[in-house]
Amino acid sequence: MTLLRIQFRPGTSIFDQVVFAAIKAFVSGELQPGQPFPSVRALAADLKIHPNTAHKVVQHLIQERWLESRPGIGTVVAERPDARPGDRRRLLKQEVEQLVVEAKRVGVSLEDLLETVRAQWRTLEIGSGGGGKR
Q1: CATH class given for the domain over 14-77
Q2: Which of 11, 68, 88, 91 could make an SS bond with 78 (beta carbons 3.0 to 4.6 A apart)?
């Protein structure tokens, strides 16, 4: 079972991409506090990455207090009542940059891009019962 959704991209280290995907899952609520996080071995096998890289990812997430190691239980998602302001925006920065670059590459105006984003936002709100900030 894959907990992290990653499409590996050239030009960015695998470590950075896995850390980004994990933090995105924490901030979005896909991974909840107290939920088990895969072991290093399971993470490496699931993502088809080197176990040393998986180990570095897990250690980094523990150091940053996104994960905690619980004796007898394993590694779990940490409680984060003090989520740092800007975490959500920072996570979107890379995707927004890629979207803007691609829009400029194909000649889409800023107004058309914003309208496309608004239309997609409305579509998702309708599908999810309308619960979202505008």
Answers
A1: mainly alpha
A2: 68
Going from N- to C-terminal start, the domains of the chain cover 14-77, 87-127
Q: Quickly count: other Cβ atoms within 10 Å of residue 90's Cβ.
A: 13
Report whether pLDDT(48) > 60.
yes
Cα separation, 21 vs 60, in Å, equals 13
pLDDT at residue 127 in the model: 60
> Cα–Cα distance between 117 and 120 in angstroms, integer?
5
DSSP state of 108: -
Give pLDDT, residue 83. Answer: 58
Return all residues near 58 (Cβ < 8 A) that are at least 6 apart: 37, 40, 43, 67, 75
CA distances from residue 105 to 13, 18, 99, 108, 109 in whole angstroms, order as listed? 25, 28, 10, 8, 10
Instruction: Select the more confidently predicted residue: 45 or 130.
Output: 45
